[in-house]
Each structure stands twice: as C-alpha cells, then as structure tokens.
Write a structure and sequence with these properties.
Elements (H helix, E strand, L loop, with lengths): L2 H17 L16 E2 L15 H11 L9 E5 L7 H10 L4 E5 L12 H14 L2 E4 L2 H10 L7 E3 L21 E4 L6 H15 L6 E5 L8 H14 L6 E5 L3 H9 L3 E4 L8 H8 L4 E5 L3 H5 L4 E5 L12 H13 L1 H15 L2 H16 L1
Parallel strand pairs: 1-2, 2-3, 3-4, 4-5, 6-7, 6-9, 7-8, 9-10, 10-11
Helix pairs in contact: 1-3, 3-4, 6-7, 6-11, 9-12
C-alpha cells in the first residue's frame, strides 16, 4: 500500500470514528471562522517538491491552516485529491460540513488514455456533492461541463494566483545569452522534443541561445528510460552544450529559476490552467505557447505569443516548432515590452491578495 493511499484511508477511518462520537468536523455557526481541511493530513512545505494542486493548497493554508480534526469547511482540489476523497466527503456531508470543490482539468482520450471515463466518474460525483465550485479557468469550466456535467451548485472562475512580492523579476538582468525555459514537470515527451526543435531553429539566428529544462522526466513510468531518451533527443540535435536539465525544484527555488531565463516555452496542448504560467508572468517572463486550453486566458494579448491550435479531445496537437521559433525570435526582439506586459498582467490579475479575498467571500457565503 502506498503512503498516499495509507494516509487517505487513515483520514477516512478517522472521519468514520468522528461520526461515532469523536468531534473531528462540525457544521459552522454564523459566528464561526472558517476551519479548513484540504483532505490531506500533512501538506507539502515550500522546501519539498510539489506541483499543481499541492501548491495551491500551500498558498491557501498560509491564510487558513490545514485542520484535519476540527474543521467546518472541506476544500478539495481535483488535481490533488486524497486517496479516499469520496469517503471523506460522505462523512463531511453527514455532519453538515460544506464542500468547496476546486475543478482543474478533466480526463479525455487525448492525454489520459484507457480509463479516462473512470477518472471522470469520480470527479463528476464529487462535483455533484459540492456546495460551491471554483473553476480554474473558463476552459476548465467548458471541459467539466462536457465530461462531468454542469455544476448544480453556485460557481465561479478563479484563476491560480501567486505572491507577486515574492515572484518578481530580478532588479537587473545579469549578462547572459538568450535563455529559454521549459518549466514544470516533463510528463509529455512532445513538450521536450518540440522545445528542442525550437532551440535548433532559434540558434540559426542567435547561436548562443541556451535552454533550461526543469522537472522530472516521466512521460513513461520508467524515469531512467525517459532520461536516456531525453539525452538522445539532445544529442541528435547537437545541442548538448546549450541545454541544462535541472530536475525537480521546490517553491523556495522557483523564483531563481525563473529569473535565470528570458522566455518561457510552453508547448503543452490543452493545458487547463497551469500555475507555472502565472509564476513566469510574475517574474517578467513572456510566454510562447500552444494557443489551447486555458493558457490564452492567462497570458492575454500582450504578455506572449500563442501558436494557434484547433480543439480536439481525441488527439494531442503539438505546436509547430517553426512557428514557435518565429514567435520566440519576435519576443526576443521586443523583450522589454513583452516582459513589462507579463509582469503587469500578473500584478493586476493574479496576485494572491484578491485571490485570498475571493476565498474569504466564498467561505462567508457558506456561513449564511
């Protein structure tokens, strides 16, 4: 049994005991402050490797600490569910505790493969149990409506947020070659191969261009095999001296990684609402991206350039490397304007302060 599964079952058993008389969660009275449980006994810290929904929970818990035992709000994130989320929700409902459901992406054939219906079935049931629904982008809402069904509870779109006083550009850019960043976890091989092809083309115009690739290489379960394939991809393109793999990084290390680069390349197709993009914008990195999923909503018209893509649920459509390279060169030529627009967009739209305030308003609504 994995540690995650064991922890999930421990939580469910504890909640069952609570139903038999031990007070673990209780309904809110109008005067009670929110005591929020995120479905996990322990949350990852800033100095541990975490991604996606876990980072969102980290940021929320700075304002509302995790309360596994005496809570009056259950807050679950679809991209970071506990092992036995449905049992947790059942026990919470029996005690009159509301569920705030944060909906990210859904499963569909283009990326999930076999079993996508089963993954969606769990999310659909939890969405149906929600007292309030937060979608991470309009694309998240559209895809959830299609594959999970429309929410019966009140709902809104609330994009990922970042502390823009922490995630910020360096005061000065040190002398360095043009540096492209491929961020996040490399869970799709085409993200890496597309980016490497972009690098090859950009180097025809700016030969000293470098690329930094972050995260685990895990497009198959065998990470050693992925690393070997990645090395072959780099060698085939003769860019060994221009590419650096830095591996996974913590939130404490993230800012320095962003500050070491000039442009974020994000070739993932139909990415629903990547927090990576918000962090990059806050650090003044323009984005060259697949114009699909929720990314165009985040980047907007001035903070980067999107490569048009048709919508498909059946197959992934990687962006054309030549088009990405042309966009990268255009951004590099006017980097100052793009970088300023990226920073401005993050500060105006994605700072944590209004994001926390919206959550406070949602929690207050649950009290009514």
């Amino acid at each position: 049994m994995t540690n995650t599964l064991r922890k999930g079952k421990d939580i469910a058993r504890a909640l069952v005991r609570g139903a038999r008389g031990v007070t673990l969660g209780f309904p809110r009275r109008p005067t009670d402050p929110p005591r929020v449980f995120y479905g996990l006994l322990r949350l990852p810290g800033r100095n541990t490797y975490a991604g996606g929904g876990a980072i969102k929970i980290q940021r929320l818990s700075q304002r509302w600490p995790n309360r596994p035992w005496r809570f009056n709000v259950l807050y679950l994130v679809s991209s970071r569910l506990p092992a036995d989320a449905e049992a947790t929700v059942r026990q919470a409902r029996r005690r009159g505790i509301p569920l705030v459901w944060n909906q990210n992406g859904v499963a569909y054939p283009a990326w999930h493969g076999v079993g996508w219906e089963d993954t969606n079935a769990v999310m659909a049931r939890l969405l149906g149990d929600a007292t309030y629904v937060i979608y991470q982008s309009e694309f998240c809402r559209t895809s959830a409506d299609r594959f999970l069904g429309k929410a019966g509870a009140p709902a809104e779109v609330l994009y990922n947020a970042v502390d823009t006083t922490v995630f910020a550009p360096a005061a000065t850019r040190p002398p360095r070659p043009l540096t492209l960043l491929v961020g996040g976890t490399q869970d799709l091989e085409y993200r890496l191969t597309t980016a490497l092809d972009v690098l090859v083309e950009v180097r025809r115009h700016i030969p000293e261009t470098r690329m930094v690739v972050t995260g685990r290489l895990r497009w198959t379960p065998d990470e050693r095999a992925c690393a070997a394939r990645a090395a072959r991809h780099v060698a085939t393109r003769a860019v060994q001296a221009n590419v650096t793999f830095v591996g996974p990084y913590t939130q404490a290390e993230a800012v320095q990684i962003f500050r070491s680069a000039d442009i974020l390349l994000h070739g993932k197709y139909n990415d629903p609402s990547p927090g990576l993009i918000v962090e990059a914008l806050a650090c003044g990195l323009p984005v060259v991206y697949s114009e699909s999923g929720g990314v165009p909503e985040i980047v907007g018209p001035d903070a980067g350039i999107g490569i048009p893509a048709e919508l498909s649920w059946e197959r992934a459509i990687p962006p054309d490397p030549a088009a990405m390279a042309r966009a990268t060169l255009e951004v590099a030529e006017r980097h100052g304007a793009f970088a300023a627009a990226a920073r401005r967009r993050a500060v105006e739209r994605f700072d944590t302060a209004p994001w926390i305030e919206r959550h406070r308003a949602v929690f207050a609504r649950l009290r009514a």
